[in-house]
Amino acid sequence: MRFLFSTFTLFAIVLLSAGCAGGRFSQPLDKRLVGHWEGLREEGSGCQFLAWKSAFRTDGSFEIIFFRDKARTQLIQAERGIWMAANGRSELKTEGVGQSEVYLYTFHGPDTVHYENTVKDPSADCQADYQFTELRVAQ
């Protein structure tokens, strides 16, 4: 009986640990955001042109790749991390960055999503950094 209890306890600990590992699988994920997306910001109003591709995965990981050109061939940088989203609120925790970014999002059809950053610097030259739209792309 003691062996059975010990085996059950060990099994329960392993299951609980697996479910909590990295916090990835326990976070809420709005499944509508899972997939591949593209966005761009036109030059003007203190802003430089910027294009990007993003991928949000079901395991809670994300990758965003930024480009200097519309064809998305001139790489600027890539960011990776973990994400969670539910009820119109998305949070991105980028590797190597101390603080998460939090956005409010709304869908305009199944393949268009608009984001607005919840923290804004009114003195920033480019206010377009705080609002943007992404379009779903097929992979």
Radius of gyration from CA coordinates: 19 Å
CATH superfamily: Calycin beta-barrel core domain
Summarize the biggest pleated sheet: 8 strands, antiparallel, barrel
Distance between the termini: 53 Å
Major β-sheet strand ordering: 1-2-3-4-5-6-7-8
Number of helices: 1
* Proportion of strand residues: 35-45%
Give the H and E element order: HEEEEEEEE
Choose one word for the global shape.
globular
Proportion of residues in helical segments: 10-25%
In a few lines, what is going on in this structure?
The chain is mainly β and 139 residues long.
Spell out the key features of this protein.
139 residues, mainly beta, Lipocalin, eight-stranded antiparallel barrel, disordered N terminus
Q: What can you see in these coordinates?
A:
The chain is mostly beta strands and 139 residues long. It has a single domain, classed as Calycin beta-barrel core domain (Lipocalin, Beta Barrel), CATH 2.40.128.20. Helix content is 14%, strand content 42%. The protein has an 8-stranded antiparallel β-barrel with strand order 1-2-3-4-5-6-7-8. The chain is globular, with a radius of gyration of 19 Å.
